[in-house]
Each structure stands twice: as C-alpha cells, then as structure tokens.
Amino acid sequence: MKTSLLDILACPDCGSPLKLSVFEEFSGGGNDVREGLLLCEGCSEIHPVIEGIPRFVPNVFLRHPDFAKKYPQVAGASDEGTRRAFLKAHGSTQERFGFEWMNYPGPLPEDREVFLAETQVPAGDWKGKRVLDAGCGMGRYSRVAHELGAETVALDLSHALERLSDLARSSGRLHLVQGNLLSPPFRDKVFDIVYSVGVIHHTPSAREAFRKISRLARSGGTLSVWVYGAAGKFSDFRTNPLRPGRAGLKPVIFWVWLTVKIREFLSDVLRLFTVRIPGKLLYLLCYPLAFLGAVPGIRYLTFSAHPLWRVRLQENFDWLTPPYQSHHSKEELGRWFEEEGCEVVKVLPHGFVPKPGILGRKK
Ligand SMILES: [Zn+2]
Q: Fewest C-beta atoms under 10 Å: which of 11, 266, 320, 353?
C-alpha cells in the first residue's frame, strides 16, 4: 500500500480519516507498506495492511491468523458479532467469487475491447484520471484501466485481487483495497471515474451498492455501471437498445421477450439448488456444461458460449454460484442514476439477453 492512498481512504464504518502505523515496508522502500495498521480517528476500529493490501473485511484474521499472532495489537479488531454478521451476509459471496477468480484463466487478449465497450468510456479518456474499479475480481479490467494510463484503485470483497499484487508492487499507479461495496472505505467524491462492470447485482442490495459507489465520484466525474437485465414488462423490453448486428431481432421482439422471461424463470429454479451446493462440487458439475457450450444448437442452453472452454467453465460457475443475483430493467437503472444526481450520457446496446448499462455524469 502506497502511503499516498491515505488521502482518499476513510473508515468504512463512520467515514472518518484513518491513521497509519507502519510495521514493515517492502524492500526498496518508496513509501510502500507491506504490513501495518489503519486506525480510525473516529470510531477507533482498526484495519490491517497485509501483504501490501489494506483489508477492510471483518473476517480478515480468519484467513491471516499469522498476522494476528505476530502483531498482538490487532487483537481488538472487529468484535465477534460484527464478524458473524459479515459472514452471514457476505461470507459465501466472498468465498465463491474468491475461488472463481483465483481460477479464472486471465488476463485475456479480449479484455481491453470488452472493457472499453462495456464501460463506454473512450480509450483516450483514462489517462491521468483517478479511477475506481468497484468489484474488480482478479483485476482483468483494473489492468486495462492501468494500461490506459489511469491511477487505478481496485476494490474487491475477495482475496482474488491478490492476482494484481505483482503489478501493484511495480507500479506507482495501481492500488489494491479489499473491502465491501456496501461500505466502501473511501472518502466521498475522490474519483474522476467510478465503474462497476457486472458486479452490484451480486450484493444483497444492488440499489444500496449503487448509492454507495455513486457518492465516490466527484462533481463532473463519470459513473459507469452495468447490471444483469430483467425481462421485465414487454412495453419496456421492446425499447431496449440493440447492438447494430442484432437489429434483426426487432420484428420478433415479443418472442425474444418471452424466451428471456422463460429463461429467467428456469434459471431462478435451477439456482435454488446450485447456490446450496458446496462451491467446489458445483465447479465440477460445471465441467459438462463447459463442454456442451461448444456444441452447436445446444450451446445456448448453457450459460456460456465463449470460444475458450476454461472461460466457459468459469462463466457457467459464475452464473450458478453467487448467493445474490438480482435482475434489473434499463428504466430502473436510469432512475437510480437520476436519484443519485447523475445525468445519463450513454446507454449500452446489447444482444438477445438484456444488459442495462449506463454511462453517467455526476452533477
Ligand atoms: Zn470509524
């Protein structure tokens, strides 16, 4: 953790500034902290810096018991009640996505193109900007933002962001923070661009997560978010923005809507079971789906038709494993932007399955 990060960090519980105690720096110095402690000047809660990453998750010492043994002064961090409440609400999401993204076969050559298309922010607009990747997973898109010249802060609930550690150590422009989108450990209005690519629908409340991350963008700054689409009402669905290559769906849009509606129902029924299956067993069950994903005619019955089988494996798992998965219409997402004081600049076009995405500007 670069000490300069302190200028934008804040206590996730009360929003007060944090005081840093450095236990150990990385060799070579450069104000890059390997182990330390962040103390809230308001509520006195403490958060450790472990292996260069500030960790704002109450169960951190379950994964890092050696740190707690080495530094007894952290013993008072997060009482048992807080830890239990966190594990109940987020433990499964953290564990399942952590496992998924540690196994994801990336980064991939397509990441840059997908990232630019899905955030809708032009390639030339990243350089020199301070950017938040809200829910970075293993950091495939944080890498792209960093390559495009942004000072990038990658935030994730799981430990999968450790896959960015080497890059963060060698760059002065990449920061890793483990924390929760529902209580982001940052001061308000400190980012030029906040983006969240397919993440907030995996929190207990996508609306609340949207509210929390939208506050982090400065006035005049950019907020780009996409969420899983809902079939919703036909009157809304028929006006969804289609990609140019998918304009042929227009004359049969009613049948598309009906198919999406049925698909949504079947997926909800299936997920009643899959979210209860232990993560690693479910992962094994996704192997046959990954192979079926290459079979013409059948592939669209699975949850991924990606050309690489290892990506299909992850994408099937990604659909079936998360405890929370909410779906939203473009109208709903548009209302969220309006309610949080953001003007809608661009709407994301998509294909058969709706994918509400908006690029907005904070007023
Ligand atoms: Zn505090």
A: 266
Taking only the tens place, the pLDDT of each residue in 134-180 is 999 999 999 999 999 999 999 999 999 999 999 999 999 999 999 99
CA 18 / ligand 1 centre spacing (Å): 8
Q: Tell whether 117 and 207 lie within a shared domain.
A: yes
In a domain, 95, yes or no: no
For residue 73, the CA-to-ligand 1 centroid distance in Å is 17
Q: What is the mean pLDDT of residues 229-248?
A: 92
Measured in angstroms, how far is the CA atom of residue 4 from the centroid of ligand 1? Answer: 19
Domain span at 166: 111-230+327-362
The pLDDT score that the predictor gives to residue 74 is 80
Residue 95, pLDDT score: 94
Same domain for 333 and 187 = yes
Query: pTM higher than 0.90 for the full model?
Result: yes
Tokens of 283: 């992962």
CA 165 to centroid of ligand 1, rounded, Å: 27
Residue 106 covered by a domain: no
> Which of 341, 352, 330, 166 minimizes the C-alpha distance to 242?
352
Q: Note residues around ion ligand 1 (Cβ under 5 angstroms).
A: 11, 13-14, 16, 40, 42-43
